[in-house]
């Protein structure tokens, strides 16, 4: 079977890219001949790579030009199946790892206010993505959509009428050799000593770039009601200074640590007590799966796919997005149990079955089924 996986650009800190690395690595041993079609790639994949890099000015031209080149490749029938991680009409398989752009815009418009809502509505790039997204989901050649949560699958079905039989929910896998409860004994003391954090302080960890979407402002404001605790933020944002100023304004700057993007988040997962991600919209963040695997209870918003895995009071809590009071309620409910081994065991058990090998076998099964139908 000749499979093409399309991903425009790789970044070492991206959750989707970590998934592609895992999937491509595992597919080598399954008899699936896999070619990566990309503009730029810095992963560890050692198989064939087809570079598609037309000239562009601006992100709209960039995405449209890449899409046109990929559609040309599809028309030449070089591959039995093409799975795209980008919004490109005409691919047989689309992995909806980024969720639905129209839904993200609607939620951001609700939370960010009228100015943002108006700006998004008329921005050429957003208009292009929304139109392209609809064309892709309604395209007759689309045979399967791989969703990383039921939240995303339900949204695609309701918005675009994609039949349920074409919507396949595959949760992201997690590498149990890298992320496991043993990180606590390995890293907790050293990481806290390096940052000057007292052992008795409860530490809430946030991992992810794009602070607005991740609800970082909500997490920072919540710290004002938790005077003995700390918030550690791992990730990048071009407006990070605004969030530092917000921490100053809330009087919590000494307890909110901006740690920047990290190639290895294991030490921070080992040193933290809970993971917090009150995102405005997050289809199924890898960071939450890694936190669960590391034995951390997770507090996530109801607009994240992760909420499907949370059993309130057992392995975490679910809060409303953009709601500081509700996040504080959840953290206070969780706080007395943070030292209880049972909640750490429950957290790790949540994702015990989400291993890369089983995830890849599900993908290969889908590929073979689709190839036989050709």
Structure description:
It is a single chain. With 374 residues, the chain is α/β, with parallel strands linked by helices. The chain is built from 14 helices and 13 strands. Strand 6, helix 6 (150-160) and strand 7 (167-169) form a beta-alpha-beta unit. The longest helix is centred in the N-terminal third of the chain and has 17 residues, at 59-75. The model has no long low-confidence stretch (mean pLDDT 91).
Short characterization:
With 374 residues, the chain is α/β, with parallel strands linked by helices.
Task: Write out key terms for the chains shown.
alpha/beta; Rossmann fold; 7-stranded parallel β-sheet; 6-stranded parallel β-sheet; 14 helices
Tally of alpha and pi helices:
14
How would you classify the helix and strand content by structural class?
A: alpha/beta
The counted number of beta strands is 13
Q: What is the CATH homologous superfamily assignment of the largest domain?
A: Glycogen Phosphorylase B
One letter per element, helices H and strands E, the order comes to EHEEHEEHHHEHEHEHEHEHEHEEHHH
Give the CA-based shape: globular
Give the CA-CA distance, first to last residue.
Answer: 12 Å
The CATH class of the largest domain is Alpha Beta
Please indicate the count of domains: 2
The biggest beta sheet, please?
7 strands, parallel
CATH topology group of the largest domain: Rossmann fold
**What would CATH call the architecture of the largest domain?**
3-Layer(aba) Sandwich
Query: What is the beta-strand fraction?
Result: 5-15%
Topology diagram in text:
Elements lengths: L1 E5 L8 H13 L5 E6 L10 E3 L7 H17 L5 E4 L8 E3 L5 H12 L1 H9 L1 H14 L6 E4 L2 H11 L6 E3 L13 H13 L7 E5 L8 H7 L7 E5 L5 H10 L6 E5 L5 H6 L2 E4 L8 H8 L4 E4 L14 E4 L4 H11 L6 H10 L5 H17 L2
Parallel strand pairs: 1-2, 1-4, 2-3, 4-5, 5-6, 6-7, 8-9, 8-11, 9-10, 11-12, 12-13
Helix pairs in contact: 1-14, 3-4, 8-12
